[in-house]
Amino acid sequence: MHPPRTTAVSSPDHLTRGEIETITTLERIGGAISLVAVCFIFVAYALVRRARNVQNTFIVFASISNVGASIACIIALDGLVLGEATSLCQTQAFLFEMFMQSDPWWSLAMAINVVLVFYFRTPPDSFRRWWWLYCLICYGGPFIIALSLLLIRASPKGLVYGDAVIWCWIGGQWAGVRIYSYYLLILICIAGTIISYALVGYHVFRSRNRLRSFSVSKSREAGHSDHVSAADHSQSDGFYGTVTTEVLVTHTSASNLVHPKSARTARHREPASFPGATLRSSADAAAFTSSVSAPPRRQDLQLLNPIHGTVSACKSVASKFSVEDPIKRAYLRTSLLFGLSVLVTWIPSSMNRIHSWINGDSPYTYQVASAAVLPLQGFWNCVIFFVTSWRAVKDDVMYRAGRMPPASHNDSGIGTLERTVNREESRASTDDEVESLNTRSDVELRAVEHAATKGVAV
Fold first, then answer.
1. Do residues 364 and 22 touch, judged by C-beta distance below 8 A?
2. Which domains occur in the chain, in start order?
């Protein structure tokens, strides 16, 4: 006969039965959602060829580890109910130790790959040649740690895997092992991810400044040589903006017309044109007077608005960190979202365990936060996968449903490694259209930086 659940999970935290049931429900719901979400990722990746780009491949490998973590979350407290030394409890703890922390490892690997792409101009396709090395590190590292802890049996402290309050994992008597074999490594991965993206941001900022400096210098040279023609062109074409002109024409007889006063010259003259106007002479002498009114220039109003200046300054700063290359932009976007999901997932759990290590207890609110966010790793990966690949998945579904002609589906782009690529395709107007180009050659990847480097050299 198995002991009651409240006895099996008794701990210094003194959780009540209702609190334990709440935590169990959160674990199983989150684990089930992630497991279903991961299945969607696998199906979409297998059926939609355009979705098989490099960043989605990283997500798929990370999702494999989410399967093991989701199964461990669904087990919940059943392992503790059976006993810490049972196979179910030890298996659950092993799954947590190996697969739960594998997700941050893949996040760091993706961030490092982004650094290689931006700093060393390495094509993302190189990942396909080194996928075995990524898997060896991101799966092999956690596996060695998890297996080593499982094999420790003769310690005076007992088994390493045991009661972790909300599931079977590293027992409370091994609190130091929790930190050094798990959370410290995760924090290193998170810190490495943040540093990598900071380096990429600095690189983008510096590269855009070089390109802008080159463009400004060329513009000045062109402006100096074509100064006269540019002035004439500006007089004929007018100025920026739209001026609404109201013309009132009065026709009177020349004999009854009073001699007008001398004209007053304004300081700022604006050229006005009247397209389509034709003057026809008549037999009787006639005179025409016109009254022209126009609202103040929009540009002048904007200059008077202080908010416009602030917004313009913010846009100017933000534009310095934008990526012009659509392929790099799509690749960086997916990587940043993946790294952000890791932060959202692991910050509450890390705070919980650090608090438990320092103070010797773990509050119920911290336990609930950990049980709510940790099982959702697979769900967040699914959201990122479909948000960044929605256009490709949507087009494939419409094609299979017969709502899109085969030619249109094929022309939208299939992720292959062809070396001859139309240059116009690399300048897609939206990020969704770029998804099909992410797995192609490095010709497009080096376009912007090559232009900037060539410009600086000139």
1. no
2. 5-213+326-437 (1.20.1070.10)
